[in-house]
Amino acid sequence: MRILFSVLLVAFLSACAGTPPLRGTGDLALIIERASGHVTLANTSTRQPYARIGGLGDLSHASAVYSRDGRYAYVFGRDGALSKIDMLEGRMVKRIVQSGNAIGGSISQDGRIVVAQNYKPGGIKAFDAETLELLAEVPAEYAPGQFSKVVGLADSPGNKFVYALFDAGEIWVSDFSDPRRPVTQRFPAGQNPYDGLVTPDGRHFLAGLFGEDGVALLDLWQPEKGSRKILEKYGRGEEKLPVYKMPHLRGWSVAQGKAYLPAIGRHEVLVVDVATWKEVGRIPVRGQPVFVMARPDGRQVWVNFAFPDYGKVDVIDTLKGQVAHQLEPGKGILHMEFTPRGENVWLSARDDHKILIYNTENLTRIGEITADAPSGIFFSSRAQRIGF
Amino acid sequence: MLSSALASEPPPQRQQELAHMVRQECGSCHGMSLQGGLGPALLPADLRDKPAEGLAATIYHGRPGTAMPPWQRFLTEAEAAWVVDRLLSGFPE
């Protein structure tokens, strides 16, 4: 027995000799390279890339969520593929094609269920986070034979997922307490919800509306009270400017008791008090806002824009309630991501083929990473946040 | 390739710009591979039964009441017709 143990010990030690040093997962980044089906993995402390993985398919509009330990990223591709990436080993662990056309996904509160939201066939599908085995699906069949595209999927406490139906104008809440038997509730939203968000405390779901001026609001603590509309008629009946790209909503919009939301067809950021859900201001900006993202401390809100103004970024000072800095960082700024405590922000400059890294305090560029037509940037710190 | 003999065909440099715009900007709704997203798919099989003039007008003027905006600030009517022609025959990378 003792001899066997010694042999095993030697085998174990020699196996260790080839392994890399231990490291944590708290400061890692995954960058989508949309045109070539690659992701680049980078370290946000050294601000250097450390791995590049290919074969992920059509990554236009791809997004990622993280396992609760931050080790695995789940990447949702436009072509319906779901890829599981090991952030430490820098390799793809598994890839399945789960639908014809997908638009993102989410992970449950307990980290065990990964849910994809699909355009075609419209609905959501739930997978075991470990194996990617299909657990259940909820087709977005809002009327007999009629399926809607699903947008705005977000996790909320209690292993629930909240999402909006673009074609049906509804908000659905699916409870996956029993992962194989989800129970779904339906609420009216309004015309053409384009995206949604869960507030950082997990209490409220907001769905931005494209087809009308307003935002649908659902209190997830009191769903029996039903959904209601806020910011109604914010356009005041004026003709809308053309929208060349749909804005994106996530819980990053909430800062200092206020939500900063993109207007649709107006070059403005709408400011809402999250205690009363009344509009308390609007801030003129230099284009159709796409991402309106608060720095984690809420002191600044960064705004990027739809084509053709996507070379610009406006930085709002939240004390003054106005744009304090106007930047022109590069060509085709598609996405922004803050380090967890907000000292840096990473911008993807698609047509410059670079990630640009800024110091948020003095707005100087402190680094860059080469990437092929980068779009989404996803930091592993998302693993610990509700609604990400 | 009768259509490529059209007098209104944009010069090569402009064709590249238009192709980039279709893949990247139109692609944010229709998908970079044009297989659809929030907007419908734009592959030859999806468009075959639709009149080309109507498709070009949709690009140029947009479609009120839907998410399709007018693109007339960024291309001419002749260029919209060229884009439709390319979409119908298989869009360049």
TrEMBL record, chain A:
Keywords: Signal. Residues 1-17 form the signal peptide. Pfam families: Cytochrom_D1. It comes from the Bacteria. Gene3D superfamilies: C-terminal (heme d1) domain of cytochrome cd1-nitrite reductase. InterPro entries: Cyt_cd1_C_sf (IPR003143), Haem_d1_sf (IPR011048), Host-pathogen_enzymatic-act (IPR051200). CDD domains: 8prop_hemeD1_NirF. This is Protein nirF. It comes from Azonexus hydrophilus.
TrEMBL record, chain B:
It comes from the Bacteria. Residues 13-91 form the Cytochrome c domain. Transmembrane segments: none annotated. Keywords: Heme, Iron, Metal-binding. InterPro entries: Cyt_c-like_dom, Cyt_c-like_dom_sf. Coiled coil: none annotated. It holds the Pfam family Cytochrome_CBB3. GO terms for molecular function: electron transfer activity; heme binding; metal ion binding. This is Cytochrome C55X NirC. It comes from Azonexus hydrophilus. The lineage of its organism: Bacteria, Pseudomonadati, Pseudomonadota, Betaproteobacteria, Rhodocyclales.
